[in-house]
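ESCALATION

Customer reports they have been waiting on this structure for their group meeting. Please prioritize. Original submission:
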Amino acid sequence: PLPRFKELCNRQFVVHEEYPLQIVEERSQASPNHYFAALAEAHQNLAEEFADRFPTPEHLRAWALVQTGHCTETDTVCDSPAEARKLAAAVRRWNPYCVIRPSGNVVKVFEPKSQSRLGMKKEEFEASKADVLALVAGMARTTPAELKKNAGRSS
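Update from on-call: job pushed to the front of the queue and completed.
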């Protein structure tokens, strides 16, 4: 270690032990702040057919992440359609932000990926941000550029 970190390293690490390292990419807080402001702007201006479907900007964001493919998918085969309906109801209580698609005795659960610093690297976050804003801008009858511009005024 560098001399200025030697004492700290001696306290935290054991000599001759191996420690895996991970590259941590810095991500500006300005980009997520602008993103959430733009989502709030879109949520406030949703077309009537979407307004009741998304009670909060977070519900809208989660749904949009799934619709744009920024999610994980889990398929569960149940013994019967009745069991599948019970599972779908339990999953809904467990995670109000996932998208659930039961079909017969199969339940598909789409869970939005975390956009946290640990959950997504910078490039993936920026791609998901662009995809989500493009989708919700259309739902708010505007363009992504207008949405970003208006969010900039409020953030």
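Sent to customer with the following note: The mean pLDDT is 91.
Escalation resolved.
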